[in-house]
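Researcher: I've got a protein sequence and the SMILES for magnesium ion. Could you write out the 3D structure of the bound complex as structure tokens? I'd like something to compare against our soaking experiments later this week.
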Amino acid sequence: MLYVDMDSFFASCELLRHAEYLGKPLVIGTSEERNKERGVVQTCTYEARKFGIKSGMPIVQAYKLCKELVYIPSDEKYYEDVSDRIFAVLRSYGRPVEQYSIDEAAIDIEGLDYGSAVAMGKELKDRIMKEIGLKCTIGISHGKYIAKMVCESAKPDGLKLLRREEIVPFLKGKAIEEIPGVGPKTASKLHSIGIDTIDKVGSTDVQLLSKATGSFGAELHNIAVGDDRSRVVESSEALSISRERTLESNTTDIKDVYLMADRLVEEVYGDVEKKNVLFKGVGIKIKYDDFTYVTRSTLLKNYSQSKEQIASVARKLFERNFDAKKPIRKIGVKVYSLSRVSGQRRLS
Ligand SMILES: [Mg+2]
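Model: Sure. Here is the predicted complex with magnesium ion in place.
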């Protein structure tokens, strides 16, 4: 498995078109320029990280750490365009590619020996630099989870191969939270049975793990003992299908939200039908009048192509996250984790 992750992607995209900020501490923020103090850091350059600035930090705090900070509001449409060009390069090898996020992917390199895999990694890095002008890090190992962790450990601008016999030593002593997919929920379940490191996962009985973490238990055990069997699941080229729209006037009435949500669901579903894709995730976005926003999403048990399902999940998410004290300016609906209906693609 070969795992690619772009280095500080949004910030690097901005530097492509703003060479004057090269070498400067730069943050990409969630709010528009005039409201920037209300937002948080979405991502930042390594120069900004040196000041202790990191993703999720309030902009106000970032300015306290560094007065010369350069601020750019997030332009997701542009980042998606750059991402499309990167994925065209990744897909040009004719191998299965699984898109994890706007700037991360796993590529199935089954059949390549270590030498050829590293050569392919080098070539990919060169091509992405030459054709797009961006740096990335590549991790190569067995299974998606391990390859992603190797990639993480090689950042920035790295290329690292972890042979099968090196996996267990590599994992030794690492916290369970470092396994991709182990979020706070799974982590606290594992903590409750006394497991805090990956090697402890490996020496714990699979049944006990499954009792604590459900179906993820067996997979976790495999990863911990260096037998990560995860494979690439191809998804459609589009990361998601989404629509968002500003309400006629700011509202604190959930009925207005539902009305607009129904329209957005119609439009999203129209695209789902046209592109003939299945989706596994449904998400919403609520933008408030102070330009802050929240996004919420739900993963379904199975792939779906039902309009009613988009509508009911979206409604539930809006209801659960509605706050009558905060006027809403704009809302969005999306489906993601897409898969093609026809063709040779695996859907599981
Ligand atoms: Mg990245």
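Model: Residues 240-340 form a domain with the Dna Ligase; domain 1 fold (CATH 3.30.1490.100). The pocket of magnesium ion is lined by residues 5-6, 9, 103-104 (CB under 6 Å).
Researcher: Great, I'll pass this along to the crystallography team.
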